[in-house]
Amino acid sequence: MDLAYTEAEEEFRGRLREWLAAVLPGLPPKPSPDDWPARRAYDTAWQRMLYDAGYAGLHWPADAGGRGATPTQHLIFLEETEKAGAPYVGANFVGLLHAGPTIAAEGTAEQRARWLPPVLRGDEIWCQGFSEPDAGSDLAALRTRAVRDGDDYVVSGQKIWTSHAEVADWCELLVRTDPGAPKHRGISWLAMPMDAPGITVRPLRTLAGSTEFAEVFLDEVRVPVRNRVGAENDGWRVTMVTLSFERGTAFVGEVVACRRTLDALAAEARRNGRWDDAVLRRRLGRLNAEFRALWRLTQWNVGESERTGGVPGIGGSVFKLRYSGVRQELYEAAAEVLGAEGAFDLDREWALDRLSSLSYTIAAGTSQIQRNIVAERILGLPKGR
Amino acid sequence: MDFQLSDDQRALRSGMRDLLGAVFDRDRMRAAVERGGGVDRGLWRELGAAGLFALRLPEEAGGVGLGLPEAVLLFEEAGRALLPGPLVATHLAAGLVKGAAEGEAVVAVAEGAGRPVADLGDADAVLVAGGAEVLTGEALEAFAAGAVPVRSMDPLTPLHRVEGRWAGAGASEGRSAGAGASEAYPGALRREGALLTAAEQLGSATRTTEMAVQHAGAREQFGSLIGSFQAVKHLCADMLARTEPARSALYAAALTGDPVEIAAAKLLADEAAVRNARDCLQIHGGMGFTWEADVHLHLKRAWLRAARWLTAAEAEEILAADLGPVRPLYSGSAAGG
Ligand SMILES: Cc1cc2nc3c(=O)[nH]c(=O)nc-3n(C[C@H](O)[C@H](O)[C@H](O)COP(=O)(O)OP(=O)(O)OC[C@H]3O[C@@H](n4cnc5c(N)ncnc54)[C@H](O)[C@@H]3O)c2cc1C
Questions:
Q1: Which residue, A304, B46, B150, B309, is most buried by CB atoms nearer than 10 A?
Q2: Distance CA A251, CA A260 (A)
Q3: Chain A nearest C-alpha distance from B12 (Å)
Q4: For the whole model, what pTM was predicted?
Q5: Strand (E) positions, A80-212?
Q6: What is the rounded CA–CA span in Å between residue B292 and residue B29?
Q7: Is B192 a catalytic residue?
Q8: What's the pLDDT band for B328 if we cut at 50, 70, 90?
Q9: A271 vs B: CB within 8 A
Q10: Chain A residues 9-38 within an 8 A CB cutoff of chain B
Q11: Helix or strand run (H / E) with residue B8
Q12: Which residues from B are below 8 Å from A295, CB to CB?
């Protein structure tokens, strides 16, 4: 048991730090959260810089255009970029963190050649069309239908909560290809071009006031059969691969960011006198323990995936369950520190972050669903209702 | 980085589990409960022979030459098995009190003002945590004369309340350096005491999770196993979500020895031990409220340990003092945060 990084890992960290120090000061200011085209441009420009410097798709396998880095190197990458205040993956999230890895793992050579390089270069971005109005936690209840017509599927139905749909080029889309089969059996995983005729994207306003996600209406959209990843009706298995990537290391950078936020909060409390309130001060101390433990748990999980060959395991569910709750507690404490004056001012980053933290126990599988997964798949309790 | 147990560490842990299974199985544990705790000298020597107390003494000094991470693994097993006696204090006294390393001597600890002393009746020596003094002979007798037995909530841990001139012992941290204690000892004593106690808490939290899952997978109501009811399932999932971050924090603290990390580990392990025991009790229903079920023994000990070495309030203050102004957080090197 060892927390020391190897010489090669430290060298990698050193080079990355130098590069970040050299390029970050020259970046343009971050666009407004409501300006999606500007956000897309900003995020993809950053991805291009990573690509040119050899840091794109670090954790992807080399034969998918990635660098084949170890989970530890990927951890270092996420840690250092966050620490340095580098741009967040943003609009590249789905492509880089789950659609891309899914295609790398399950796609044909042709599919990999078509879709992976543009993700790495920042030329194309992806969105995730899984959820439907009547299929959220019960994802396998999805109804969007795809009917074979020659070399195409003709797709009709509706998706919802599709993040980045407004500016995405591609959508990882789940469709029902065999309506007669049991619900987990008749599903397929398609790559749908977002500019195909028949697609209507209607932005939804979130409680934070922004348009983070959208409804996507599909009216006889033609998607070539060759865009199917995995076998027809075997999409549920492919979906599980996607979800394991989604819950894998997606939150690592955020733990580092939360700890930085906590430090800034303590500094603010010391400045505005709230630090003298022992109850509040101790609450911040407790959050320090939580974020330290989550960081160590991340290192533990990475140690495990390094030993088992790099596939993120279901340990991610334990992490996600705890992290999503603690993150919300952080912003509750922030509101206490800021007091009535600061806590409600939407021009302050805190207030917006407090609002967006509310999504963490819902998106990517609710806390209740994570508990089911932990209880049934890790602890081995019987399935039931 | 390889933050996973090594093969040797796994072997050490399973060796300890086997040993405890042989010398302190459930029958013996329950017999100890009926006796009202107290140290079994034979068992103490066996633990000594197995290296529990001498684990961190250098081999030249007759020790095993291992470190805090290994000690943590052994104390985790002790916590799991509800092993009684002043294990942590005796371990800390190895090399300081004659016979402690071998399990010949039983060493208790006085942590300071307002804290009861455990296992004083059996003690051959008392460590005074705050002042790094060791009391033996007449000093021990004088100390014991000022101690009043308490009817202990935990049937495996006899307690004394200390009165008179010793009542505030420990308050003057680091001032009087007693027999054989180095300057740095008082701080290290408290840190390591907290860390090893946290390890016992983690073992207990792991065990009560197992007990809950076992019961939930065996007991039927409404024609189903209660573990298939989501309300029960979610209690179990939360137990694991408390235990695993505490485990990572504890192992990391054992590697770095960093006081802030130790505070985090103690805080989270205390919470995991106490709350998991409570949830385990709930899942056992009426049976959970009986003397016969072991769960109350875990809960009582967890409460007791949470009040020892480093309380939640003290840990939170240490962790708060570590926060802001903004500065580098997770350093790249082993020491981390
Ligand atoms: C910010 C944000 C971004 C998102 N982005 C995307 C995206 O890009 N693409 C995409 O496809 N989806 C996305 N989602 C959707 C997200 O995955 C779903 O919201 C989530 O899975 C929950 O589904 P639901 O909203 O239908 O809630 P429901 O499933 O209706 O759940 C409602 C409540 O019932 C509880 N519940 C449901 N089933 C059970 C059960 N079996 N046991 C116990 N409790 C249960 C839930 O925990 C919840 O509390 C996003 C969501 C958010 C908030």
A1: B309
A2: 15
A3: 13
A4: 0.93
A5: 126-129, 145-149, 152-163, 170-176, 187-193, 199-204
A6: 12
A7: yes
A8: very low
A9: no
A10: 9-10, 13
A11: helix B7-23
A12: 330, 336-337
